[in-house]
Inverse folding.
């Protein structure tokens, strides 16, 4: 190669190292992309993001949509017996808690329960946002709510006002919605069964009535009336579409009792 060739090779190598060194000076690690969240958007005071974090609106990052602080999967404003909450954002946060299995439920739950063509929810956050919204099952009459806890993520979709029934208390009992003006003796007899007077008290609550009737006009606890539903076509003075339950201390209920325009709720054995 000779002396001249060796000098040229050395010079090229030197220049290459300088160029690469200069290039290295301009190489910088790219910043990590910021996490982005979807959130419940409309809350005036509170917001919940898709991680299940609930926070004050002042603690929401508008550049990412994420809560910068707050509590994750917060169920403090919810009653887990019926899975109903007093605030919409709290309902979404609690619904997203792993123990409530929204990940799997979202794949099986229709957007509109009565319409198969509505499709399934896209993901747990969309499911919880949808199911926690107020709907007709959580209202007693027009704009009156059954309870302040009217945001529910349960299959029932409405708050319960009484304690759950004791385990097994209705074993062997058929709960039957009767015909208008018929008493429970007649209702059960038509099914070749007998009315069980001792079980009437377990049916005499607004929760049990709502499970079997619409109770569109509401439900009242009144001594001497119930458990029954007023026929929706009854005259206005009879209070159509109203449910009536008897208070616990309202006296013994009878299978032979009936009310004009009412449909009785009957335990048949």
């Amino acid at each position: 190669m000779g002396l001249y060739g060796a000098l040229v090779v050395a010079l090229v190598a030197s220049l290459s190292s300088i160029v690469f060194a200069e290039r290295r000076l301009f190489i910088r690690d790219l910043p990590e992309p910021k996490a982005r969240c979807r959130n419940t958007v409309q809350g005036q005071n509170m917001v919940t993001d898709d991680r299940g974090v609930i926070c004050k609106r002042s603690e929401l990052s508008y550049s990412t949509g994420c809560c910068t602080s707050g509590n994750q999967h917060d169920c403090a404003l919810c009653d887990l017996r019926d899975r109903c909450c007093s605030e919409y954002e709290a309902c979404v946060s609690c619904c997203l808690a792993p123990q409530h299995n929204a990940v799997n439920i979202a794949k099986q739950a229709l957007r509109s329960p009565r319409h198969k063509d509505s499709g399934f929810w896209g993901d747990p956050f969309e499911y919880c946002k949808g199911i926690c919204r107020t709907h007709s099952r959580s209202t007693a009459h027009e704009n009156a709510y059954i309870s302040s806890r009217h945001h529910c993520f349960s299959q029932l979709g409405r708050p319960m006002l009484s304690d759950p029934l004791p385990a097994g208390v209705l074993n062997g009992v058929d709960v039957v919605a009767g015909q208008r003006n018929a008493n429970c003796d007649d209702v059960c007899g038509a099914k070749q069964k007998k009315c069980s007077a001792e079980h009437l008290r377990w049916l005499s609550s607004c929760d049990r009535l709502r499970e079997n009737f619409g109770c569109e006009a509401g439900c009242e606890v009144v001594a001497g009336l119930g458990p029954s539903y007023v026929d929706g076509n009854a005259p206005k003075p009879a209070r159509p579409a109203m449910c009536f339950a008897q208070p616990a201390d309202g006296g013994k209920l009878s299978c032979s009792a009936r009310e004009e325009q009412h449909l009785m709720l009957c335990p048949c054995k």
In short: The helical segments are 2-26, 88-95, 102-108, 124-131, 184-189, 200-203, 206-212. The first strand starts at residue 46 and ends at 48. The longest helix spans residues 2-26.
